[in-house]
Amino acid sequence: MTADVFGAIQFRDGHQPEFGQAVYEVLESLEPALARHPEYLRSGVLERLCEPERQIIFRVPWTDDAGEVRVNRGFRVEFNSALGPYKGGLRFHPSVNIGVIKFLGFEQIFKNALTGLPLGGGKGGSDFDPKGKSDAEIMRFCQSFMTELHRHIGEYTDVPAGDIGVGRREIGYLFGQYKRITNRYESGVLTGKGLNWGGSQVRTEATGYGTVYFVEEMLRARGDGFDGRRVVVSGSGNVAIYAARKAEELGGTVVAMSDSGGYVVDENGIDIEAVRELKEVRSGRLKEYAEDHERARFVEGGSIWDVPCAIALPCATQNELDDEAALALVRNGVVAVGEGANMPTTPGAVKVFLDAGTAFGPGKAANAGGVATSGLEMQQNASRDSWHFNYTDARLAEIMADIHNGCLATAEAYGAPGNYVLGANIAGFTKVADTMLDLGVI
Ligand SMILES: NC(=O)C1=CN([C@@H]2O[C@H](COP(=O)(O)OP(=O)(O)OC[C@H]3O[C@@H](n4cnc5c(N)ncnc54)[C@H](O)[C@@H]3O)[C@@H](O)[C@H]2O)C=CC1
Ligand SMILES: O=C(O)CCC(=O)C(=O)O
């Protein structure tokens, strides 16, 4: 049956490979749940889940510093609102197209369900490349993007946030333009805001910290931990920096990090604060880190996954860890892999880890701490409140432990103990599917 559904999707959307990959991975692991619950098939839940409720594509014209008019394409895919308003980030990167946004929106449905918070799934972005743009250009782009997007979003409708290329600066320009156009100080319309204007403590750290909390739970379930372990973190953006920081706080040694130019290795442990300052303040390249730290070496190109480690945290982008990389990690004795990024591990590589008995935390569970903390930001906005750092961090840790335990229990209940991929997919799916049954055919 799932083969029929997938065939229909391939027929319609075969030119969207990332979307096909994300759908296939979910459908494949749902078989045991569908066998137990034929009502999902009778009510067309699968077909409805795989088709976005709404897809918005729009022109984003803006003027560069030389006075030239430029045009980018903007997207917002409002995928599923069974559990709450559409929720998910905006990605600004030249590789963005409708298929990439659909894959991210589809993943977001199940991830958001796993958080236990009332959040539907959506995603958006643009093929705009922020690299090399001035602050004024970024602002004009964000204002133009919001001039169209504002009519589709709202606290009770659709609540965007950041993703690759969209951080607090961009959220600020987007929020400013929304406020100006609508004449409403509607804090709950966006998350990832600055602390002075409705943001939440811990949102900046949340995805990286949450990923490490999840991996810590997987390790604990095996009587292990971060202490004294070598850790490799790919990427050096928002998720990577705070995953590395938390891994170090728990006693791990982060020996390698990367950016799109290559990777840096420091056997004594990377100075995470120096990477944070380099990336967040100076917008520099990781190569400069090696120039400033004589014990470090920079490898241009190549695979960061060749660096031996016990714990691997892919935190850059989709399909960055392939079969060959997974085999290298397993050969070098990896014990746990936690996906900080969305779908960073190819299907073949996931199979390598599952076959080897590596604890593997899929992104929709392991990186759910970011959107969960966005949910906590929405709670604070709704109650005109702001919580302390430690309280918010404790809520995040509790949510990640609950997600871990839910995935583990679901995997066990469906005859696949220790398989977090199956556990996350079935646990997220059944919550959304049961709600869709309650709400009727809409
Ligand atoms: N920011 C958030 O709250 C969340 C982000 N994610 C996912 O985490 C991943 C990273 O996102 P952020 O850290 O927020 O973005 P970011 O823009 O702060 O950093 C992106 C990082 O990925 C690297 N990168 C991007 N494209 C690359 C490519 N083609 N090849 C090699 N490296 C590349 C960049 O060098 C940078 O280190 C993405 O998959 C995103 O969807 C997942 C959950 C929440
Ligand atoms: O915080 C959010 O709403 C979205 C985070 C996100 O884009 C993700 O989980 O991939």
From TrEMBL:
Record key words, sorted: NAD, Nucleotide-binding, Oxidoreductase
Site (Important for catalysis): D163
Gene Ontology molecular function: any one: nucleotide binding
Keyword Transmembrane among record annotations: no
Entry binding sites for substrate: K87, Q108, K111, G162, S374
Residue ranges annotated for the Glutamate/phenylalanine/leucine/valine/L-tryptophan dehydrogenase C-terminal domain, each copy included: 200-440
Active-site annotation: K123 (proton donor)
Binding site for NAD(+): T207, N238
UniProt GO BP: glutamate biosynthetic process
GO cellular component, one term: cytosol
Source domain of life: Bacteria
CDD domains xrefs: NAD_bind_2_Glu_DH
Family named by the database record: Belongs to the Glu/Leu/Phe/Val dehydrogenases family.
Subunit description: Homohexamer.
Protein's recorded name: Glutamate dehydrogenase
Annotated organism of origin: Saccharopolyspora karakumensis
